Predict the 3D structure of the following.
Amino acid sequence: MTTDPTAGRPAATPSPVLSIRGGALRVRNRELWSGLDLDVHPGEFIAVLGGNGTGKTSLLRAMLGERRLDEGTVQVGGHAAHRGHRRIGYIPQQKIAAPGTPLRGRDLVALGVNGTRWGPPISTRGDRERVDALLASVGAESYADRPLGSLSGGEQQRLRVAQALADDPTLLLCDEPLMSLDLQHQRAVSELIDARRREHGTAVVFVTHDINPVLAIVDRVLYLAQGRFTIGTPDEVLRDDVLSRLYGTPVEVFRSRGRVIVVGTPEAEHHHEVVA
Ligand SMILES: Nc1ncnc2c1ncn2[C@@H]1O[C@H](COP(=O)(O)OP(=O)(O)OP(=O)(O)O)[C@@H](O)[C@H]1O
């Protein structure tokens, strides 16, 4: 197991945006993981991989200050994580709006701009211009005035990205943002997030079941399994020996046409699906 919080990174890097020391989480007397040290630096893209219930969402909630770690500390920008941090953008696990939802895409993005995510409607000209710029940045102008419930999953997800970028975040937390999107929209949403971190130095923590759509842009992987974890570059982590040690069972990693396929994990056997 790799425990070095800077594993896989070159020396002499700027101060971390996010820093976890000795992190541990437990649910109902079950340890999800412990001893987690992780530094995430400006512009870094960290993928968090792992099967169902390994604590990926709980980890993001600890970064958001919505859940306390059972041990250890989480700092964002040098201060203890707390709720309502203005410089954290959050894309929660996708919820497609019901067909009758009257809220428009423009309103969703405006909620991110006007101070609190659930605050009053915006009114100032500056805010309206900011909403227009955000809508343009995700290519959503043409459907911004339609009710959310009438938009496709990919269109809604672009709007969620725009909302998460509204506060000019230094840290962007994404919880399965590609879930139920087709390949074209997976690529489009990944590119939006990648552009943000390249152009603004936003650090990205990206929870995903499938690393393949973002394999080319991931700097490091935090892989959670069996109450343990490992951290490193995709080449360091996505290997037979490393994952076999992590899972405690023989696991094979195949690479084909730029894709990674992991075979032999308990998740793959139970769900007949590829994990990474
Ligand atoms: N509020 C809660 N109360 C009790 N148990 C919880 C709570 N939130 C999460 N858990 C449990 O903690 C474990 C980790 O949940 P979490 O949602 O973090 O996992 P995950 O890795 O994000 O899973 P998935 O891939 O299925 O979304 C699960 O067993 C879950 O049932």
Q: What stands out?
A: Helices lie at 56-63, 105-113, 125-137, 153-164, 183-200, 234-237, 240-247, 266-271. DSSP finds eight helices and twelve strands in the chain.
